[in-house]
Design a protein that fits this description.
The protein is an alpha+beta fold. Helices cover 54% and strands 12% of the residues. It has a 4-stranded antiparallel sheet. α4 crosses α7 and α5 packs across α6.
Length: 248
């Protein structure tokens, strides 16, 4: 005989069976009333010739109606040749993995894996940007659950509000790199910052005055020839004045 909401609410342990009293609702599902009067929904079923029990949930957090819905979902899995207990365990593991893959965890992994591509000073600057302007707002969110509006409203708009427009664009690009890394590693489905292409305020344009005083030009040329950076950069700096002169 099917259970009723009133019975489920009012029934108590009978005081005899130390394992608890079972009250069947049909389809293998029953309500187990324990000696402490805690009530748990269970479902008995057979899979691959073995008798098994699926835990459906605790009453009253899981109502009679909700328990019946979960029973039907389990029966559908059985009809498809799947073990409901194994499917439940897989879902729980996936949920735990998703919770562990927060934006901050993925971003720090990305920082470490790509550190060789950046100068040490740049690595420190990128880490500071993330720790100061991104992690406090979306760092603890599972990266797969973050949408474009989260990045826009919780990160970018905050920076725009303090007129840090150039940095807002840089941070949006950094977030995009983290999301693309997450896609490659299987932690996210796509780079959601791609949707923000036309949502950011335009960056501030700075026009630098040209050097017209020969003394200033001389200082610049001496600084270029004294620069001891990467050979490619040095070569480009030395060629720049010549190219500019030929273009006139």
């Amino acid at each position: 005989m099917a259970l009723t909401d009133t019975f489920v609410k009012q029934t108590k342990w009978g005081g005899i069976n130390k394992a608890g009293d079972k009250h069947s609702d049909g389809g293998g599902m029953f309500l187990l009333v324990k000696p402490n009067n805690h009530k748990a929904w269970k479902m008995s079923y057979r899979f691959d010739g073995s008798q098994k029990t699926l835990s459906i949930g605790m009453y009253p957090a899981v109502t009679l109606a909700k328990a019946r819905k979960r029973r039907e979902e389990a029966r559908e899995l059985l009809a498809e040749g799947q073990d409901p207990s194994a499917a439940k365990q897989d879902a729980q593991q996936a949920k735990l993995a998703e919770a562990a893959n927060t934006f901050e965890c993925v971003a720090r992994d990305w920082l470490e894996k790509t550190a060789a591509n950046r100068a040490e000073i740049t690595q420190g600057k990128v880490r500071t940007w993330l720790e100061k302007d991104v992690f406090p707002h979306i760092g603890q969110m599972p990266i797969r659950t973050i949408g474009p509006r989260d990045v826009l409203e919780k990160v970018v708009r905050r920076m725009e509000a303090r007129e840090a427009l150039d940095t807002a664009h840089r941070i949006k690009q950094l977030c995009g790199q983290v999301f693309r890394y997450a896609v490659v590693t299987g932690s996210a489905d796509r780079d959601v910052t791609a949707d923000l292409k036309d949502a950011l305020k335009a960056k501030t344009k700075v026009h630098h005055a040209a050097l017209t005083d020969p003394k200033d030009v001389g200082k610049l040329l001496r600084a270029i020839y004294d620069y001891a950076g990467h050979p490619t950069t040095v070569a480009a700096l030395k060629l720049a004045p010549r190219v500019r002169h030929q273009l006139r």
